[in-house]
């Protein structure tokens, strides 16, 4: 009987030691629920190992920031946790910051609403709610229950925000600035709530919550609309490129159709005179034209089913074609499954293509071979570029040095492959570039590891 009485007294009277223990336990649960919520809504893929590391690191950081700088604990927490999300879940710093703000918005709204309800129903003060264990536990469990319901509904109805995945740099910066101002307004509202929650009417509290909620969702909606418009513009640009490919393809086919009789008669002449060498040369020239038509047929969004890669390849193809460079293009993989950030991939591949076009344009024999394929045996995606080149005493060991170039005017050169190397380093050996050269061909193969 005395035991139960002791327990009841402990949970119904101010007990700082018990509150400290409860804060640690409930804090871990809170971190876990926030993590489930923002990884689901922001479409961040996770593993069990990543989740455990995140919870341990977050708990340590939260304790450390409170001890080191109590007055700025929230600001320091947001900065450190944003970096933590980026490093552990392999996402962007913007996504980490948005995840933090999203968690804070949900937490502040629920805290404000539930605390106001508790003050009205139980007729208690904020001090009692904070310092008496039974009220504190019930209060926090109510918040966590609502958070879990929100998480469950988001997962069940597949409510995922893919906005950040398709956003360009300009809109990312706009969203970041918007989030910073949102955080400032949220922090101000939080402190007002803490100091005046027992004095403010419930109508003002609800109005304040609705305004914050509306601010974030209207901002998000506006950015979503802007991003959709940009995607439509990109689709239109892609369609224009495809139409250009179709026009050239159509003109080539018409030309073949028009000259078909002449081609057959020319072949017949070589056959009649039994000029096999002449027939071989004629066939080789004819095959070049056929290969050009085949390449144009490959330049289709259905085959190159990645808009960014399609736009890059078509623009570089036409640039090479204008310089009289023959491009042989072979694709044996689904380009929508490239296991790398598409922004970084197109930067690397664009630099490699620019270099190959520039090198082969100086040769008498202007050829570039491009091949995309998946090596299932070694779990790799392979992207190979071969081009003819003039051996200008190329030092392979210095190829990726900043400023190194074989060109006479080195002022604006020597940065491309150095930039490629910087991107490769960021990907922690999951992406590798192998460079080689033969008598006629310079070869660069980009290898992306896949699970």
- CATH homologous superfamily name of the largest domain? Histidine kinase-like ATPase, C-terminal domain
Number of domains: 2
SS element count, helices: 13
Beta content: 5-15%
According to CATH, the fold-level topology of the largest domain is Heat Shock Protein 90
Helix vs. strand class = alpha+beta
Count the strands?
A: 5
List the secondary-structure elements in sequence, H or E.
HHHHHHHHHHHEHEEHEE
Q: Largest sheet at a glance?
A: 5 strands, mixed
What does this structure look like?
- With 451 residues, the protein is an alpha+beta fold.
- The protein has 2 domains: 2-200, no CATH class; 231-449, 2-Layer Sandwich (Heat Shock Protein 90), CATH 3.30.565.
- It contains 13 helices and 5 strands.
- The protein has helices at residues 2-12, 16-41, 48-68, 73-89, 93-122, 126-131, 133-156, 169-196, 202-272, 276-298, 307-322, 342-360, 416-426, and strands spanning 326-332, 367-375, 380-388, 431-437, 441-449.
- The chain has a 5-stranded mixed sheet with strand order 1-2-3-5-4.
- Helix 12 links the parallel strand 1 and strand 2.
- Helix 2 (16-41) packs across helix 3.
- The protein is elongated, with a radius of gyration of 31 Å.
- The mean pLDDT is 78.
């Amino acid at each position: 009987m005395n035991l139960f009485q002791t327990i009841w007294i402990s949970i119904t009277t101010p007990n700082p030691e018990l509150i400290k223990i409860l804060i640690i336990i409930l804090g871990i649960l809170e971190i876990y629920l926030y993590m489930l919520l923002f990884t689901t809504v922001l479409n961040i893929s996770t593993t069990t190992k990543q989740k455990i590391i995140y919870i341990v690191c977050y708990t340590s950081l939260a304790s450390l920031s409170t001890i080191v700088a109590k007055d700025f604990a929230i600001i320091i927490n947001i900065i450190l946790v944003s970096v933590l999300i980026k490093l552990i879940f392999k996402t962007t710093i913007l996504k980490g910051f948005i995840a933090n703000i999203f968690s804070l918005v949900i937490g502040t709204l629920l805290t404000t609403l539930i605390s106001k309800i508790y003050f009205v129903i139980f007729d208690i003060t904020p001090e009692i709610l904070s310092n008496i264990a039974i009220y504190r536990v019930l209060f926090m469990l109510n918040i966590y229950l609502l958070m879990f319901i929100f998480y469950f509904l988001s997962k069940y109805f597949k409510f995922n925000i893919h906005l950040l995945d398709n956003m360009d740099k300009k809109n990312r910066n706009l969203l970041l600035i918007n989030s910073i101002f949102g955080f400032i307004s949220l922090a101000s509202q939080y402190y007002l709530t803490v100091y005046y929650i027992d004095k403010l009417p419930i109508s003002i509290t609800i109005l304040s919550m609705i305004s914050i909620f509306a601010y974030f969702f209207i901002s998000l909606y506006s950015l979503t609309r802007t991003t959709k418009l940009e995607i439509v513009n990109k689709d239109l640009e892609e369609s224009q490129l495809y139409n250009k490919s179709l026009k050239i393809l159509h003109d080539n086919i018409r030309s073949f159709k028009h000259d078909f009789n002449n081609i057959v008669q020319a072949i017949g002449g070589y056959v009649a005179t039994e000029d096999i060498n002449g027939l071989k040369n004629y066939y080789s020239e004819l095959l070049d034209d056929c290969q050009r038509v085949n390449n144009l047929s490959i330049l289709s969004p259905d085959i190159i089913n990645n808009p960014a890669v399609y736009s890059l390849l078509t623009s570089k193809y036409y640039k090479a074609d204008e310089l009289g460079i023959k491009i042989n293009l072979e694709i044996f993989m689904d380009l929508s499954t490239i296991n790398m950030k598409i922004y970084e991939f197109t930067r690397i591949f664009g630099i490699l293509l620019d270099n190959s076009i520039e090198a082969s344009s100086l040769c008498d024999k202007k050829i570039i071979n491009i091949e995309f394929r998946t090596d299932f045996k070694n779990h790799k995606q392979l992207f190979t570029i071969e081009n003819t080149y003039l051996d200008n005493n190329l030092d392979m060991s210095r190829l990726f040095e900043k400023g190194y170039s074989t060109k006479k005017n080195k002022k604006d050169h020597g940065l491309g492959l150095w930039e490629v190397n910087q991107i490769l380093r960021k990907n922690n050996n999951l992406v590798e570039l192998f460079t080689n050269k033969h008598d006629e061909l310079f070869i660069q193969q980009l290898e992306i590891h896949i699970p």
